[in-house]
Amino acid sequence: MASVAFTINGQAVTLAAEPNASLLWAVREQIGLTGTKFGCGSGLCGACTLHVNGEAVRSCQTSLQSVAGKRVTTIEGLSANGDHPLQKAWIAEQTPQCGYCQSGQIMKAAELLAKTPKPTREQIVQHMDGNLCRCGAYPRIASAIERASKEG
Amino acid sequence: MTASDVTRSGLSRRAVLAGSAGLSFAFALGFDPGAGALAAGPGGRINAYVRIATDGTITIINPAAEMGQGVNTAIPLIIAEELDADWSKVKVETAPVDPVYNHPVLRTQMVVASISVRGYWMPCRMAGAQARRVLMEAAAGRWGVPLAEVSTEPSAVLHKASNRRMTYGEIAAFAQVPEKMPELKPEELKPVAQFRLLGKDVTRVDVAAKSTGRETYAIDVRVPGMLYGTLARRPVRDSGPVSFNRDEIRQMPGIVEVVALDHGVGVIGETVEAVFAARQKLKIQWKDAPGFKMNSETARAEYLAKVRDPAAKGVVGRNTGDAMGAIASAARVHTSEFTTDYVYHAQMEPHACVASVTPDGLELWAGTQWPTRTVEDAAKAAGVPAAKVKFHHLTMGGGYGRNAFVEYAVDATLLSKAVGKPVKMIQSREDDMANGRFRPMTAQRIVVALDGQGKVSGWRHRIAADTIVPYLYGQERMDAQKGVDHIVVYGADMPHYEVPNHVAEHIYEERGVRTAAWRGIGAGHNNFAIEVVLDELARMAGEDPVAYRLAILKDPRAKAVVQKASQMADFSRKRDGRALGVAFSKLGAPPIGFALIATVAEVSVDRASGKIGVHNLWMAADVGLPLQPSNIVAQLEGAAVYSLGAALKERVTIKNGLVEQSNFHDYEIMRMSEIPAMHTELIRSGDIPLPVGELSMGATLPAIANAVFALTGKTLRHAPFTPERVKQALA
Ligand code: FES
Ligand code: FES
Predict the structure, then answer these.
(1) pLDDT confidence of B35, banded at 50, 70, 90?
(2) Residues on chain A touching B254 (C-beta within 8 angstroms)
């Protein structure tokens, strides 16, 4: 079995990788970082969104082998103390309901703010449109992103 | 349930105190012999809801399951308010399964129908006030002053006359839990005007964990030696596997066991990937069952034929006066028909549960809307008494009615039992959808009797739909209710309207489809029909929809929400290329009380594509006493988004018993780009919190249909209003 070395939230890891291993399940079940969620397994919901080399990707559609030598960041590693501007804004806006989609929402939003620190509402909606929230927390997801972009 | 049931079961003071007395007895067993001191008890337990540690930490037990609705903040907040707790010192714990925490109306631990806060309101106020009284008595005793001279400030008892003060933590170090708990009268509770936590928007206790990935859902649980499992469930009721390719699956990499169950085939393996891959390769021959004959497209027409057929007998679910007599003697009769499709809950966390069956019993990690039943059913599956179940009750990644059915806990237990190891059972999204439990499909026909003056004299609402109650609660309960499926007929009654004679009938459609309550309960489909008919009647009367409703609504609170929403929307102002529609709805039942809402929708229609755009929703909601106003707004808007899906695109279709949709590409739910601007205002109408979580579900659909009529002159009768259906209606 091949092994794959990469960094996760700044720490080096080497995992044994079955050919069919997905990044999502490796992160959740092997490494034990369960903030990244399984929603559809087919790239359709965004619950599994994390960063690979700073890009938001859907980990259910990313093979473990493909991240060899790369930097993987999950919701747990987005900030040292859960105080990324988005996380503070998420709390201030009381955004989460069931919360299940929210790690993916925040990681997707973090990608936006990294590239576009002052997005318009349209840019927010366009960027976030693939991340589903069954609780319908969309208004507060959008307003939390706006707040984070203002308050930094 | 009758009014007297409710009174007896705990909304009255007597029942509450009887319950509390029962609690203190139960706790007494947990104390060390002879130790009545708080500090010596298990964590400083005062009653079932409150523990106070000597460092001042207050643990409040939340009896209701959290699934996004915010109940793990709202209910503890009620207790903290009466306890006069310093909220920053409060920790919230979810209750274990224990009859002491039964919902006062449901008489089991269950979260349905948006009645958690309403149901636990008085018991929890009493529990908080009682705990405060115990602390006050202890402090007064220590100081040797009369109880009447002491008071509290957040987390401390004061004796103002002598300027003395003791914190709750200090008191916990010496206080005794009295053998007989103090009895409080409702008038001794804190006056609502003095609330300092309720009504003030306290930060939800779970949002920080949910913003940092730290919240634990059942799917996140990992225990040593755990295997993974999944299940291919029979597609329809009463079927089961006849044969399957066991040998082939058994040899796939990473597969440990393949298990035949009565109701499906389980696959157990070393990784999630292995069991999902094996699941895809499973070839199962299913035992024939009536459900395999089900084709929803043809069935819908048959349901419609049923509501038209005078010979088709329905069970009377709601009845006031003599609707049939009124129709027979009507000057004029108006008839209208509607259908709604099956819809899927699509909770974002696919069903998952961890179970570990050992010779000693069962350990279970699950999120569930019905903890009591979860433990009972899983215990049965494990073959152990319920007392041998160690249950970890976790928050849910959405519920919406789906997780009141607890079959996933049984499945996880059976898989663990089969291999003698802990198993995390996860359903793929495809399986979660294939064996979803859907809101029944309905065909509805409303016949309205009008008298010589054009006033409504009678109303007959016939609903052909699958049943739910026998599958959720059992046939016994259905029989005890004289065949009334209260979930299906929910919302068909019209107590706020001047409709003197009214009947709602349910014609059963039993076709083997797996059903459940869906957010909004029956109001999601029934109120669609009711409120579209009201617009039709308004047009017949030559009145505008708001004026007509204000005239025919007899309830002042109902009039107020309609008035408010129409003001918010500036209802009479014409818009270019857009139009408005209004609808009224309610949530609750007579003994509990009704929360009320009026919704105005602003829509446009792209005639070429048939696509409806919903641009604005104005909602005015009378929720009684709003405890967590910002969270109530989130619930109203979230449920509006949920019902927009049912209005515009969500539909499950069934062919030969099999669900045709499989994931979010063909069962699309609302996206951020499709969300209207939402404007929500709360009306406070009293001192009791009324049901909230599903309130906006009933009004969104008809408001959109009525707006589309205002714009196009065509009525949409088949929900969801897909582009094809809109084009058909406009043709
Ligand atoms: S779980 Fe990866 S996109 Fe849905
Ligand atoms: S908060 Fe529940 S799915 Fe988004």
Answers:
(1) very low
(2) 18
User: Tens digit of pLDDT for each residue in B482-534?
Assistant: 999 999 999 999 999 999 999 999 999 999 999 999 999 999 999 999 999 99
Cα separation, A38 vs A40, in Å, equals 6
Nearest residue of A to residue B352, measured between CA atoms: A38
B430 neighbourhood in chain A, CB within 8 Å = 41
Bond preceding residue B186 cis, omega within 30 of 0: no
Evaluate if residue B3 carries a pLDDT over 70. Answer: no
Q: Please tell me the distance between residue B593's alpha carbon and the centre of ligand 1 in angstroms.
A: 41
Nearest to B397 by CA among B229, B230, B203, B218: B218
Q: Could you tell me if the CB of A102 is within 6 A of ligand 2?
A: yes
C-alpha distance across the termini of chain A, in Å: 44
pTM: 0.95
Residues with CB under 6 A from ligand 1: A 38-41, 43-48, 58, 60
Run of H or E residues at B333? strand B332-340
Q: What is the C-alpha separation between B713 and B706, in angstroms, rounded?
A: 9
B261 versus B33: which is more confidently predicted?
B261
Quote ipTM for the complex: 0.98
Residue window 299-338, chain B: list those with CB within 8 Å of chain A.
none
Alpha carbon distance B712, B714 (integer Å): 5
For B504-534, give one letter per residue: b (16+ CB within 10 A) or e: bbbbbbebbbbbbbbbbbbbbbbbbbbbbbb
Beta bridge partners of B352: B426
Interface contact B675-A82, CB threshold 8 A = no
Q: Which of B482, B553, B558, B469 is nearest to B515 (CA)?
A: B469
Largest distance between two CA atoms of chain B = 85
Q: How far is CA B524 from CA B61, B111, B530, B627, B671, in A?
A: 33, 18, 11, 25, 20
User: pLDDT category, B14, cuts 50, 70, 90?
Assistant: very low
Spatial neighbors of B479 by CB under 8 A, at least 6 apart, are none
Pocket of ligand 2 contains residue A97 by CB under 6 Å:
yes
Query: What domains sit in chain B, N to C, each tagged with a CATH number?
Result: 19-202 (3.30.365.10), 221-289+351-426 (3.30.365.10), 313-343+438-730 (3.30.365.10)
Contact A38 B219 (CB under 8 A): yes
Could you tell me which residues come within 8 angstroms of residue A135 by beta carbon, excluding any fewer than 6 positions away?
A97, A98, A101, B68, B348, B398, B638, B642
DSSP category for residue B395: B
Tell me the pLDDT of chain A (152 aa) as tens digits.
Answer: 789 999 999 999 999 988 889 999 999 999 999 999 999 999 999 999 999 999 999 999 999 999 999 999 999 999 999 999 999 999 999 999 999 999 999 999 999 999 999 999 999 999 999 999 999 999 999 999 999 999 98
Atom of ligand 1 nearest to the CA of A37: 1
Nearest ligand to the CA atom of A38: 1
Query: Does position B5 have pLDDT exceeding 50, yes or no?
Result: no
Going by CA atoms, what residue is nearest to atom 4 of ligand 2? A133
Residue A121 is encoded by which pair of tokens?
């509402």
Comparing alpha-carbon positions, the chain A residue that sits nearest to B70 is A97
Q: What is the pLDDT of residues B386-407, one digit of tens each?
A: 999 999 999 999 999 999 999 9
Q: Which domains, from first to last, does chain A contain?
A: 2-77 (3.10.20.30), 85-151 (1.10.150.120)
- B305-364 pLDDT, tens per residue? 999 999 999 999 999 999 999 999 999 999 999 999 999 999 999 999 999 999 999 999
Cα of A132 to ligand 2 centre, how many Å?
8
3-state secondary structure B645-685: HHHHCCCECEECCEECCCCCCCCCCCCHHHCCEEEEEEECC
Give me the residue from A44, A102, A126 closest to B210, CB to CB: A102
- B391 CB neighbour count, 10 Å cutoff: 20
